[in-house]
Amino acid sequence: MSVSQVHSRYVYDSRGNPTVEVEVTTGKGVFRAIVPSGASTGIHEAVELRDGDSAKWGGKGVLKAVSNVNDIIGPKLVSSGLKVTDQRAIDELMIKLDGTANKSKLGANAILGVSIAVARAGAAEKNIPLYQHIAGLFGANKTPYVMPVPFCNVLNGGEHAGGSMPFQEFMIGPVGASSFAEGFRWNSEIYHTLKSLAKKKLGPSAGNVGDEGGVAPDLTTAEEALDLIVEAINKAGYQGKVKIAMDSASSQFFKDGKYDLDFKNPNSDPSKWLSVKQLAEKYHELLKKYPLVFLEDPFAEDDWDAWTYFMESGVSVPIIADDLVCTNPQRIATAIKKNAANTLLLKVNQIGSLTETFEAAQEAYDAGWGILVSHRSGETEDSFIADLVVGLRTGEIKSGAPCRSERLAKYNQLLRIEEQLGDDCVYAGEKFHDAFKI
């Protein structure tokens, strides 16, 4: 069955900024997708088309992207007669229509909205769940399905929160649980314990939350944050069962070849900025002291030598590349060649279509990498990545804290999927990094 109508409008994301919503109509019904948006965006991401009209939404309007769907992509897709189950053909049609390497003409936010809505229409056409349709498109349609470990960002810093904390995310992952539902309950209990501890130790405002739902106390060092999280895990009764992970988002504090951990201070002292070797030593110290199971973006997005140096320094946990590769197959290939990382952070809006997302995932798997599926900081109620993580069998997802409905939309969908699958799924647990092999 082909598409009879495509309609786009602007709606709002969790930051109150406009974003693109797309509806694709077939004989089976109307299928909707809303596109997320990042704050700490990599410079190598596909272009999120914004209007730039300072008189409206501070320049962040998406009327051009909406118009591109309604006036260019939609009519072309309808007239093509392509079946909604032919995801690759539809995505390639849009990519060709755009004609640029980074989707700057039509906008990755326009193309991705249509791509995801088409995937939902394709699943309905086959009368199967979305995760099963994705698994089929990707070529991973086998049972049991793998339910992911939820890495919840329980303490926010960096660009996602006020205060002086330079590191962006501190996550907890219930690797010792027996199911997704049990693991997420543990995360919820630890989150509430952490919030109470933060308020007790640092005052009522320490319980305020950042963009991704984690508490955002005014802490300065990684050690302060990690000590607080370890205390919360232990107090909640999950010592040894729940591990910790960090996303440094270090491109935000990369200056003149060094790393400024006081970057939020406009008068930071350049003599205290860290060299690559000094920052690497700091990470090694943290890995020895705390139950960390991965580090994300430990170095800046174009500081290739730093990534390779760190990988060759005997690092003991997965090193996740986000801004370094931006879900872009060409940059992933470079990272593989340089041995700069060993895990891909997968964000669909960094590349801008599902077909290219699948290509990026396959390239990572072929190199023996793990894959962490991720939300964006500017999120919506769209739960697509929950089905994506199950369909791709990545075994790990991060979608923020157990707080704020745009975060819970994904986790709640995973609860539904696990319930629906019953005995036809297993929880990734401690095998999260190699879940595709399960």
TrEMBL record:
Its EC number is 4.2.1.11. Mg(2+) binds at D247, E296, D322. Gene3D superfamilies: Enolase-like C-terminal domain (3.20.20.120), Enolase-like, N-terminal domain (3.30.390.10). Mg(2+) is required for catalysis and for stabilizing the dimer. The active site is at E212 (proton donor), K347 (proton acceptor). SUPFAM superfamilies: Enolase C-terminal domain-like, Enolase N-terminal domain-like. One of its GO terms (biological process) is glycolytic process. Residues 144-435 form the Enolase C-terminal TIM barrel domain. It catalyses: (2R)-2-phosphoglycerate = phosphoenolpyruvate + H2O. Pathway: Carbohydrate degradation; glycolysis; pyruvate from D-glyceraldehyde 3-phosphate: step 4/5. It is an enzyme of class 4 (lyase). Keywords: Glycolysis, Lyase, Magnesium, Metal-binding. Belongs to the enolase family. PANTHER family: ENOLASE. This is phosphopyruvate hydratase. The lineage of its organism: Eukaryota, Fungi, Dikarya, Ascomycota, Saccharomycotina.
